[in-house]
Amino acid sequence: MDSITQFVLGAAVSTACLGSKIGPRKAALMGGLLGTLPDLDVFIPFDDPIDSFVYHRGWSHSIFVHALATPLIGEVLLRLFKGLREHRWLTWGAVFLVLTTHAMIDAMTVYGTRIFWPLYPDPVGVGSVFIIDPIYSVPLLLVVIYALCKKNWTSRLRNWVAGALIFTTGYMGLSVVLQQYVEARAQTLFQSEGEPPQEIYAIAAPFNIMLWKVIGLREDRYENMYYSLLDGEAVPEIYEHPRHPELTACLAETAAFKKLEWFSRGFFRTELVDDRIVVSDLRMGLTPGYAFRFAIGQIEAGSIQPIEPLRETGLSRIDSEDWAWFKERLQGRPSVRKAEMGARDWTVAQASETCSSGRALSG
Hints:
Blueprint: H1 3-22, H2 24-35, H3 49-54, H4 63-80, H5 88-107, H6 134-148, H7 155-193, E1 199-204, E2 211-217, E3 221-228, E4 238-242, H8 255-263, E5 268-273, E6 276-281, E7 293-300, E8 303-311, H9 320-330, H10 348-356
Helix pairs in contact: 1-2, 1-5, 1-6, 1-7, 4-5, 6-7
C-alpha cells in the first residue's frame, strides 16, 4: 500500500508492543521508520522497466527474510533504547510484526508481494483493497498522531491503539468476504448474459470496498463489469474489449512476454500503438489508461520483431468525466463510463497476416 499507510501501520504496531517500555513517541517513530524498510527495494537497479515492475516487492517483503532480519534489527534496538534491554523477546516480536504486517497488507492489494519467497516465489495478490484506502489508513494515522503527542504511556492510549488495529484488521477481513460475494454475484450476472467467462476476478475500486471492478477473462477478449454493493438487483454495465492474442503470437517465447504473462496471471491485453505491440496489465487501472503498459514488439518491414521493453505512458490514467461516473456508481446509480465506449480495434486478419509474414522469434 502507500508509504503513509505503511508508516502509520508500523508505528501503531510498534506503539502497541513497545509503547509502555520506551514511551509512545519513541515507539511510534521507530516503528514507522521500520515499517517502511521493505520498500527500500525501489532503489535496487533493474535491467529494464519490466523487471522493475515484476520484481518489486520481492525478497525484501518475504516473511522468511523478515525472520532472519529480526534478530539483527532487534539487537540494534536493544542497544539504542535502555528500556528494551530487559525485553529481548518482546523487542524481537515487535520488529517481526512491524515487518510482516507491511508485507501482509501489500499482499491484500492486486499488485501483490512475494510474501513466501523463496519457498513460493510467485507474488500473492488478493486484490480486495486498493493501494490507497482512507477507511483503513485514517484510523491508524489518528492514533499515531495521538501517540506522537504523548510522552508517557496511558491506558487510554493503549485502548485507542488497540481499537484502531482491531478495526483495520477487521476491515481487511471484510474486504475479502465482500470480494468473494462480488465474484459469486458476477458469475451469476455473466451467466444471465450468456456463456460465462473462463476466469472472473473482482478487484476493489479506488479508495473503497463498496465499488468493484470485475474482469471477465476470455481467450480473445475481456469484459469489465463495475459492481456496486448498492446496485441491488439491477444489472450493472458490462464493457467488452478485445485482447488480441494474435499480436503476441510471434512474441510468446520472448522473456518480456513471459514475465508479463506470469506476473499478470494471464490478465493482460495486447494492442497496436504506432506500430508497437503494447501489453497492459488489466488488473491495475481502468481501460484504456492502465497503470502498467509495456511495448515489447514492433512491426518492421511487414513482420513483428521483439524490441527492448519500453514503458508506455501516453494515456491518461483517469479523466474528469471518470470522477462523476465513479461518484454515481459508488452510490449504486446507473452510469456509463464513456472512456470504455468505442475502443479502437485492430482486426485479427490484419494481425495474423503481419505475424505470419515474419520469421520465427525467440526470447
